[in-house]
From TrEMBL:
Top-tier EC class: lyase
Similarity section: Belongs to the NAD(P)-dependent epimerase/dehydratase family. GDP-mannose 4,6-dehydratase subfamily.
InterPro entries on file: GDP_Man_deHydtase (IPR006368), NAD(P)-bd_dom (IPR016040), NAD(P)-bd_dom_sf (IPR036291)
Lineage: Bacteria, Bacillati, Bacillota, Bacilli, Bacillales
Pfam families recorded: GDP_Man_Dehyd
Domain NAD(P)-binding: 5-309
Gene Ontology molecular-function annotations: GDP-mannose 4,6-dehydratase activity
UniProt organism field: Aquibacillus albus
Catalytic function, reaction form: GDP-alpha-D-mannose = GDP-4-dehydro-alpha-D-rhamnose + H2O
Protein name: GDP-mannose 4,6-dehydratase
Gene3D superfamilies: NAD(P)-binding Rossmann-like Domain, UDP-galactose 4-epimerase, domain 1
Cofactor(s) the protein requires to work: NADP(+)
Amino acid sequence: MKRALVTGVTGQDGSYLAELLLSKGYEVYGLRRRTSTPNYENVEHIKDRIVWIEGDLTDLASLIEAIRMSKPDEIYNLAAQSFVATSWPQPIATSNITALGVINMLEAARLIKPDVRFYQASSSEMFGKVVETPQKETTPFYPRSPYGVAKVYGHWITVNYRESYNMFACSGILFNHESPRRGLEFVTRKVTDGVARIKMGILNELRLGNLDAKRDWGFAGDYVKAMWLMLQQDDPDDYVISTGETHTVRELVEIAFEHVGLDWKQYVVIDENFTRPAEVDLLLGDCSKAIKKLNWELEVDFEQLVKMMVDSDLGKLRRSLQFN
């Protein structure tokens, strides 16, 4: 039986990855940070099938102990301060977790289990102010946020450990990927939750920033399959994971409102408070390498994704109203 250690396992990606690994017969170890109120919402249905280990990416000793305990064949480093907007008011915390946390994890792996297969969650935010479109594995990075800068460090230190110590270390450069488990602070979930609340008569407006921002949005459940596939290859490498299509926030809004039979123009209010200090206008990934080398494929398209998220948020609201 293969063993996997997953950081960030209670997050969106971690929960889908844990499901996938469990379905493949893995023993899954989840690293969890000590918090006063643990949040298991995304993994409630599989919580008892995960072996939990206390640890923190900013604490090397705890990571060494986690690897000693789990003896993993694969490590998936998904934990991060993952919200771009928060990285401006909290740049140092973002750097400590999202950048330095990666080298702590790599160093712990090198010391205790150097033959482990290591996956690093890189991000399309590393491309930032893009120098070419679409962006591929060889596109130069130009990050436009403290988060993007931290992710660039995590990416390059992973490459460095691969080349310096001959470790099987891969990075997946994931473009925006969403799901019903996405945090409410992200624009996709903010829209689908807002639409559900407006439909149910709880809200009467939805305040948004730049409707013209374009993103390459895919389904998180599809993207975790690519993570797993990277660690099954003969040689470690880095891959862009994306849909190869771009959609505006306006399209997202239109599909979501139309799905519940409402006209978005009657409810959406543009609010300057939701624009970023340095905006990333266009992210579009070229995932041809992943499709060719990993035999990876997308199963959920953009419209299906938005409708899935709206339906999920409507269901959550209806259940909560029944119980209140």
